[in-house]
Amino acid sequence: MGKEFIIDKVFDAVFVCAGVYTDPFHASVTKLDNFAGTITHSRDYRTPGKYAGKRVTILGSGPSSFDIALDLQPVATEVVVSVSKTDLFNLKQQYANGVFPSNLKVVDWIDHVDDDGWLVFGDGSKVMSDVLMFCTGYKISFPFLDASCGVTIENERHVQPLYKHMIHTQRPTMFFINILRSPISFNTAYAQVPVAMKILAGAVKLPSAEEMETESEIEYQNRLAVGIPGFKAHGFLGCGDFSLFSYYRDLATMAGTTVSLPLDMMETLLQKLIHNISKNCATHKNISYEQPERGQRLVRKYSRPRVQRLLSNS
Known about the structure:
It contains seven helices and 18 strands. By secondary structure, the protein is α/β, with parallel strands linked by helices. The strands form seven sheets. The chain has a five-stranded parallel β-sheet with strand order 3-10-4-5-6. Helix 3 runs parallel beside helix 5. Mean pLDDT is 89; it is low at 299-314.
């Protein structure tokens, strides 16, 4: 016990399934050193109690930002959510429509921290906060991979050289499962793993490494051309025509198989979910979604106390 040792073995294939929700990403903030309060990340959030009576500013416009903001609102003195230009869920419009309680407000993205420690936003407004919480997602990192694997990560979230966001072009028996950025990315393995197994079985012939890298680069450049930032190279939320479901179908076509997921139903459900969140993120969890032809409830309601219990036990 306690001794470190290395086992050296040769395998026919390697599946990297390490997840992408471990290493927090902190967006760059000019003069952040001027902030005298507590700096934290949504990764470390569990329950609102420790923020009672505090002024909290949250950076981010994704699900974690408004979930945590609404969780903090009953106990915090003030909650400010600073959203990026994309504002995927229309939080600024919801704020203008009076959706949120009076001590929760939504402002532009942070510009800098001034010399007195005030957080200054893009619209010129500023607040003094006790806590600055980054709800800015996660980096992708594989510290266990040796440099000889030839894997690089640009912008802390763009893994290369990958084909179809999963296949190492130079080592096509190395697969990266579920590194996508998507609101339902946990389903991705059901689409990717069958493809990988067919490749290993010789049932799918891949293009040459050069062809795979060219196709991947074309997709990346197409993303940049329509304004998708480089750190969303594997993103499928708020990425326009780059649809997660089109990606699943593309994989199935490549492998000559079908995806073991109800894609049409899932796509409809996701559209409804995003619509409801964008309309009122404070109440969307009170909605149950049903499959019309069966009357089957697909998403059950989660009360906020239950969510807090799940977090506290994680």
